[in-house]
Each structure stands twice: as C-alpha cells, then as structure tokens.
Amino acid sequence: MVDTAHELGTPVVGHCRGASSTRDAALAGFDMILHATYMDEAALAAVIERKVPIVPTFTFQANLADYGETIGASPELRALFQKEIAESAVMLRRAYDAGVPLLCGTESGFCLTPYGDWHYRELEVFVRDLGMTPLQAITCATSENAFALRLHGDTGTIQAGKLADLIVVAGEVERDVTVLGERGDIRHVVRGGEVIPPLIETIRRDPPGWRVSHYGKQILKRAMLGNELSPPSVIHS
After folding, report:
1. Half-sphere CA count of 201, side-chain side, radius 13 A
2. Mean pLDDT of 159-167
C-alpha cells in the first residue's frame, strides 16, 4: 500500500498507539506517525533508522489527565492517559535526540480540545514532559512541521521569500511557551504579509458527533480553569 501510494506521489500517515504498530509503520515507509506511544527498543530503532516524523499529539491526554476533573472525566480515564504520557515520554525523547523530527499536533475538535483554546498546549507538554527547551518546542511547531508537511519552502521560518505568517506576542516565549496561550498577550497577527485582527470571534457549529462526549460532560475551555492552569508535573529526562 505504501509503495503504491508513493508511486502516486501520496504520503502515508499512520495512527499508531503501541510498539508493534509503530515499528511496522516505520519499516513500511510511512511518511508520518501519529502518537507512537509505548515504543519498545525495536520500534525505537525502526523510527530512528527511517527518521520518520512523529506527532505525539499529547494535548488530549494532558488535558484529560490535568483538567479532566473539571468536566467530569472519570479518575480511571485520567490515570490511563497520564500513564500513556509518562511511559512514552522517555522513548520519544530518545527518538528526538537521535534526530527523529517531533511535530506539534493538537487533536483539536474533541470536548477536551475545542478549537481556539489549546493550540499552544502541545508546546507546553513538550517542555514539561519531554524536557525540551521552549525554543526546541517552538521549532517543532514551526520549521519541523513545515518540513514534514512539505511546506518548508513556503513557511516555517522567518525568511525572505516565504509566506509572512506571523504572530507577535507580549512576553518572552523563549522562556515560557504558555505565553502563546494567553489571548490578551497576542499583539499582532500577520497572514501573508497583511496585518489582521488578532482575535476573530466566529459562530461555529460543529458537525453532529464531532465532539467525543464520553470523556467528559462538557467542553473544556481555558476560562473554566483559572488558577488550575500549568499544574505541577514530573519532567522526564
């Protein structure tokens, strides 16, 4: 399947949560792997050999583990997803240190990750749980993402000739990536070289069944949390 897709110029992406599926996807030549959690040594060796980009997409798990109580998620589910992060962080960091690109995803659309509130959160998880520096995490969200999506000639870095898609924020993002989640700190948004309003509120009606409700009883919005944001956590090294 992968060979045929590549003959047609089509990239192949796999949703893999487990050692065997991650290993098989890497060996088959997948162009990107989502999650890649619970890797064993064989899976790690395969992704390192092929340098296949990995999108851990931990925002969903982190929100459920850290804030799930706010929306009525069960303690069992919260513990399960915290375990997935804790048991996968070390191997993902080893892959990153060996040159495997790690990309920032959001898992947006679920009740735990509604559009507009949590797009910065993966960077926070990369810093907190994978032990990255803020600038390393930002690189995973910009130039590494652009490269994996085959857009590195157009975007991902601030260079002459590339699309001028920028955000300007108040604060030192190289010290604290959570600044990117504060709407009031967004000063300017530039899209294609044109300055646009930083906050555009729209009425969104989600498609039926898009949000997964059994993880909680309501939609998790940042405004609901107050002082609960950025809870203490162990950084894995």
Report:
1. 1
2. 91
